[in-house]
Amino acid sequence: MNTEVMNQLLQEAGLPTDHPLAQRLRMAFDRLSPGQQRVARLLLESPYDVAFLPVADVGRRANVSDSTVVRLASELGYSGYPELRQELQGGLLARMAPIDLLEQRLRTDTHDPSAIIGLEIQNLKLLQESLTSEVVDTAVERLLSAERIFVLGMRSGFGVAHSCWHLFQQVLGDSVELLTLFGGSLADRLAHINSGDVMIIFTTPRYSRQILQAARYARRRGADVIAVTDRLLSPAGRVAWLTIPTPIRSTSFFPSSVAAQTVVNVLVSELARRGHNRAAERLSRFEEVADEFDLFLEDRKDQHE
Predict the structure, then answer these.
(1) CATH 3.40.50.1370 fits 129-293, yes or no
(2) Strands (E), 171-214
(3) pTM of the model as a whole
């Protein structure tokens, strides 16, 4: 297929021409087998329909075998079809409103709870493959050296951000601050950020404009930004000093935050290991306060009785 015809196909397709998958298909289409080209056309023409389908359903719609779908992913340079599907979803989710996602899920998803749990397990397996010790070491070393750590997440990312702030405080103390929009305080707090500080942000499609503005401002002030987001080249990833990609596939109208919370758990565990004396002192003081105010229903020795 010559370039002019391919460009026409891309223009008529439902997949945006600036999507990374569209660019790969443009480069590889001529060398694909006829079966792979049928799958490629399906991806181009009906991306929103197939982005959330398993391999078997994609093959059935394209009238090819499952192995043809898998081989197409390899031919395009992906490690497998799950990686292709993740990139396809990542580029589309930012363009879809929650109501569109809900309708899409109702058309394609199962109601079986085990399928939902299985999808989260797949997210964690992908995270396990991609989250290297080098990335964790880089993040932890910078966090330990930071004068202050600002944590920011909004909407579905706020829960993970709050958890991150709470757990980081348990280990690092009052140098960790949760940024919020409450009372218009975000701008006030950002006014004091500097090159000794770190901002860690949590954002996924549809990306928060305010989070990205805050991250850009932090970078201009010399602070390092760690982005926990869905892909390396997401809007947040392009702003960040360090990006930690987290799979977000979900069976609902909102992205999964399980992998992002797991990243927080990994970072906290390593922060506590490296700064164990500091963490032990903080936790010991908390136990004293907990006893003083009788915070918990049962003490530890009774929990397993």
Answers:
(1) no
(2) 176-179, 198-202
(3) 0.68
